[in-house]
Amino acid sequence: MTRMSDKAGTTASLHQRILGDIEGRILSGALAPGARIATEHELAAAYDCSRMTVAKVLTQLANAGLVERRRKAGTFVRQPSSQAAVLEIHDIKAEVLALGQPYRFEMISRTARRSDRRDSDFLGAKISGRLLEISCRHFARRKVFCLEERLINLKAVPEAEAESFAEISPGRWLLDTVPWTEAEHRIRATAASRVEALQLGVPQGTPCLVVERRTWRGKLPITHVRLLYPGDAHQLVAHFTPSQR
After folding, report:
1. Residue predicted with more confidence, 225 or 10
2. Per-residue confidence band for 94, with pLDDT thresholds at 50, 70 and 90
3. How far is it, in rounded angstroms, from Cα 118 to Cα 89?
4. Residues 18 and 99 in one domain
5. Within this chain, do residues 154 and 229 fall inside the same structural domain, yes or no?
6. Of 74, 89, 100, nearest to 212 (Cα)?
7. Is 95 within 8 Å of 172 (Cβ atoms)?
8. Which own/partner contact pairs does 184-190 have at CB distance under 8 Å and 24+ positions apart?
9. Looking at the structure, do residues 22 and 109 belong to the same domain, yes or no?
10. Which of 14, 83, 104, 161 is deepest in the core (most CB within 10 A)?
11. Looking at 51, 77, 103, which one is the last position of a domain?
12. Taking Cα atoms as reference points, which of 151, 143, 72 lies closest to residue 104?
């Protein structure tokens, strides 16, 4: 390991330098989730500083949720876990970028078709006409962040039929294009089916979190979406205060 002596700097500035170096490598992807961080002894030698300074840096990184310190095993980059507020509609790209991870999405299928009876159940209102059925995957770095299955009511959003979604995800496009007046979230746990496991890149039966959402504009349903997250990589958060009578 290259020796990086900086005796002229103060302990505080050296602490920030070590912290910035390791944090930058984690957020840039140079150190991937699961990667082992150099030992306290190795880092102290590399930066020509005390092990106490290095220990404080690693503790700060652990408190920030970037690394995990395992007794007798060492320090490892943590697999990031996202969180979303239960009562808000979030852009998945923003969730991934907030974790310091590069984002991309890919379309699996996109089909315009006539609605059937089951679609009314999904959209929460009796409908007839054409729908756009979409399936896509969202990635955080190289791992699948979530699987998205969506129905868009083309009566409410006719312009969606001409949108390729090549440059923007369906959820982000809808947030930018269509004002909504009402939304409903349903949250439950499930085990990944064989097909879902293949699409998520996890073993069949892996515990997953399902978030289903419907939105309306007035009485007109806009979309139904089912988001499937590997259960150890996502959490839902609700912050509230006592109701005032």
Report:
1. 225
2. confident
3. 24
4. no
5. yes
6. 89
7. no
8. 184/124, 184/213, 184/214, 184/215, 185/86, 185/87, 185/211, 185/212, 185/213, 186/210, 186/211, 186/212, 186/213, 187/86, 187/211, 187/212, 187/236, 188/212, 189/231, 190/228
9. no
10. 14
11. 77
12. 143
